[in-house]
Known about the structure:
- The structure is a single chain.
- By secondary structure, this protein is α/β, with parallel strands linked by helices.
- Among the domains are: 1-145 and 671-687 and 706-745, 3-Layer(aba) Sandwich (Rossmann fold); 330-379.
- 63% of the residues lie in helices and 12% in strands.
- It has 22 helices and 14 strands.
- Strands 2-1-4-5-6-7 form a 6-stranded antiparallel β-sheet. It has a 6-stranded mixed β-sheet with strand order 8-11-12-3-13-14. A two-stranded antiparallel ribbon has the order 9-10.
- A hairpin with a 5-residue loop joins strand 13 (717-723) and strand 14.
- Helix 2 packs across helix 5, helix 5 runs antiparallel to helix 12 and helix 5 (174-277) packs across helix 13 (480-488).
- The longest helix is centred in the N-terminal third of the chain and has 104 residues, at 174-277.
- The chain is rod-shaped, with a radius of gyration of 59 Å.
- It starts with a strand and ends with a helix.
Amino acid sequence: MHLESLELVGFKTFAQKTILNFDNGKGKPHHITAVVGPNGSGKSNIADSVRWVLGEQSLKLLRGKNSEDVIFSGSEGRGRSGFAEATITINNEDKRAKIDYAQIVISRRLYRDGDSEYLLNGNNVRLSDIQLLLAEANFGQRSYGVIAQGMIDHVLVAAPHERKEFFDDAAGVKSLQLKRHQAELKLDRSEDNLKQAQTILAEIVPHLKALERQMNRLKQREDLERDLGLVQGQYYGGLWHELVSHEGALRLKLATAEAALDEKKKKVDEANATFAGMEKYEEETGDLSKMQASYQELVREKTKLEHARFELERKIAVQKIRLEKPFVPLPLSKIIAEIDAIVRELGTCLKGGKDVLATCHDSLSLLHERAHKLLTGLQRPPDDEKPKEDPVLLAELAELTKLIEAFNPKIRESEMLLADYSKNEQKKKGALFELQRSAQVHQRALFDLERSLNEVRVEIARVETRRETLNEEMHGALGEEQVAGIKNQENNKSRNQESSNSLNHEQLREEMFSIKRKLEFIGGIDPGVPQEFEEVKARHDHLTTQITDLDAAIIDTKKIMKELGEEIQSRSEAALKILNREFERYFKKIFGGGIARILEVRQEVTEEELALMTDEEKAEVEKTKGLVGVDIQATPPGKKLKSINLLSGGERAMTSLALIAAIISMNPSPFVILDEVDAALDEANSRRYAEILKELSERTQFVIITHNRTTMETADILYGVTMGTDGISKLLSVKLEEIGSYARQ
C-alpha cells in the first residue's frame, strides 16, 4: 500500500488543478519524494491538503481561522475559487485496507456556502467511514501520518495524557479505539432507546389492561348475544311454526265447513225450488204462504244480525290480541343507533344558530316524535295502565246478541205455527209438510254451520293478527337472515315442534329476558375498541420485543467494549515495549549513547476514592487499568537530566528525530508526510537524519517538505514549488534517478 498521487483544485494557493505523482510508473512508489521551494511559495499547503483530505477538523493545525480559508481567496490576476478540493489516490493491491478496490481514491470538497462532502471512489461517505478504513490500514490523519515542524517537539513537552493519545495512534490501536468509540455511542443510543421504550411501555400498560377488560366484556357480550340468538331462534321459531301449524289446521277446518255449508245451501235451495213449484197450491192456502214468508223473513233478518255479530266479534278479537301484545325491550344496538341518529340530526339543526327555530321546526317536531316513540319502546307499562277493550264495541256486541236472541222465540213460534198447521193439513198436504220439516232441519243445520264457520274465521283472524305481531317481534329481535331462515327452512316445522315439546315457551322466554338483562348490565362497548386493542397490543408487543433486543444489544455491546478494551490494553503494552526499545536504539544511534525511555504513568485509586466514583468513572478506571498517560525520559551521554524540558533546542530536535524513527520502525505507516521536521538540524545531524530516512524508506514511503540540501539528496524525485505575482503556487518536478543515470553516461 502506498500513495500514488495528490490532486489539488482551489485549495489555498493551488488555484489551478495541480497533480503530484508519487509513483515511479511501474506500480512502485518513490521511496522518498522531496518538495522544496522558497518561503511563502505554498509548499506546506501540500502537507495541509493531505491532512485536510484525511478529515482534519482543527483549523489551527490547518493554519486558518475559518473553514473557507482553505479555498483560494483570489489575487490581482485571478478571481477567488468557489470551492476547494483535494484528492489522494492510494494503491491498495496488497489489500492492506479492507476494501475490494485495488486503488482507493479519497476526496474532500468544500464550497463557499459551507456545504462539504467526502468521497470514496466517487461515492459519498461519512468521515468516520474513511477514518475507520485508514485506521484498520494503520494510517490516520493525526499523530505521525502527517508530521509538521514542531509537532514531535510538542509531544516531548506535552502532558502525559496527550502523549498517550499520540502513542495509542502510533501503537496501531486507532481502529480498535474507533470501534470502541462507536460501541460507546451505540451503547449510549441503546440505553437512551431503552429508557424511552420503557417509559412508553409504562404508559401503555395501564391503557392496555383497560382495553383487555373491555375486550373481555366484549367477549362476554358476544357470547351472550350468540346465546341470545340461539334462544330467540328456538323461542320465536317454536311460536312461529306453532302458529303456522295452527293456522293451517284452522284453514283446513274452514275449507271443510265451507264445503258442508255449500252442501246445506244446495239442499235448502232445492227445498225452496220445490216450494216454488207448489206456488199454485200455496196461493190456495194463503195462510201457509204468509206463515212461510214470515218465517223466511225472520231467518233472513237473523242471518244478517249473525253476520254483523261475526264481524264485530272479529274486530274485538283482533283488538284484544293487539292489546295483549307482550312487552319486548328494544335491542341495545337499535337503541344506540336511534339515539345516535337523533343526536346527529339535532346537532345538524343546532348548527343553524339563531335561525334554528325557523329552519328546523319540522325536523325538531319529527325528532320529538322519534324520541317519544323510543321512550315508549323502552318503558314497560304497568298492568293497571294497559289499555282495556273498547266499551263501545262491547256494547254493540251485547246489543246485537240481544237482538239475535230476540229472533229465536219468534222463529220458534213461526216454526210451531207451521208445525201445527202441518198437523192439521197433514192428511191433505202430507208431502208438502214433510218437505217443510226437512227444510226446517236443513235450515237449522245451515245456521249451526254458519255459526261454526264464523267461529273458525274469527279464530283464523286471531291467528293472523298474532302472526303479524310475532313477525314484528321477530324482525325487531332477530336479523333478516335469521327470520328468513325460520320462515323458509323446510324442516323447521318438525324441528321446532320437537323443540316446543321439549322446551316450554315460557322457560325460553324467561331465559331470553335473563340474557337481555345481562347484556344491559354489561352495557354498550365502543365499536372501535377491538381495533384500538389490536393497535395498542401490537405496539406493546413491539416495545417488549424492542426492550428485549435492546437489553441483549447492551449486553453484547458491553462485552464487545470489554474485549476491545482488553485488546487495546494488550496491544498498547506490547507496542510500548517495542517503542521503548526502538526509541532507545535510535536515540543512542543519533547521540552516540545516552539513555532514553518511555514510561507508563498510572494513577492509583484507593478504595475510598473508588466508592465515591460514579459507574461511568469506575468503568473508565477499569477500562484503562489506571493508565493515565505516558512520560518520556531522555538523557544524552555525559549528562544527568531528570526532565526532558532541560534539553537544548538541538538535543530536543534530535530526540524528536529518534522518537519519529522509533515510531515508524515499530509500526510502519504506508506513507508519512514530513513538513520541515529537519529545519533545526545542523549538517552533522542532517546526515544522520538522511541515513535514518533511507533505512526507514525500505518500509515506509516518505513525502518530505524541506529546505535541507542533505535531505534533498536522499530523494528519488524532487518537486519544486514556486509562486508568481498572481499568488498561485505552481510545480516543477525533477526525477533525480534519471539525472543520476544521465550524469553517469
